[in-house]
Amino acid sequence: MTALTMIEIELKRKSLSFIRMTTSYLVIVQKTEPLLHLLGLKKLIFPDTSFKEESLIMSKTMAWTSFFAALFTLISLKFLQFFNFIKWSPVGWAKKWLIFGSKNEYSKWVLLFIILLIVFGIFYLVSKLTVNISPAITALVISVICAVALEWVIYSPSTLWEGIKSISIPFFSIIAVVSRFVTGTAVYEVKSSINS
User: Fold this and answer.
1) What's the CA angle centered on 62, arms 50 and 150, to 5 degrees?
2) The domain containing residue 39 runs over which residues?
């Protein structure tokens, strides 16, 4: 019995939406595996040659990690805004949308929490694929990209130097700590499931 057959048997027990998501992921893995092998990246991205179906399932660890990462980020953003470490409002994007313009501040913060929860859940799943890369390096690269991209979109600087000067160091630090927490937990979960 091949690993793919075993996965298909296990997937028949899952819901229909999960089967659709997993089979599309299997097709992507099957199509990219020869290219990754040719480039020498197969062992870097897929350290175990057998496909692990449980790596796609949302685990309790992923849910709790995403929850606390979103909660910490939300509290930190409020702290940074209150003490003027950032010159922009974390819920200022809601003013541009007419749907959320008249809502109170509390509902905007709740919506931001839900968005952060989803983003950190996706980030957790992506971090599981980077098992052979150090979580510190992955977190640093992701946090630099996210901090620069968010502040670039918010400020819209005219020159590169102006954009670099506008980056808030405390905001970058918060993003780096949360990124390290999420990637470290995801990589630890994958490594512990491989060893067991």
Assistant:
1) 110
2) 1-57
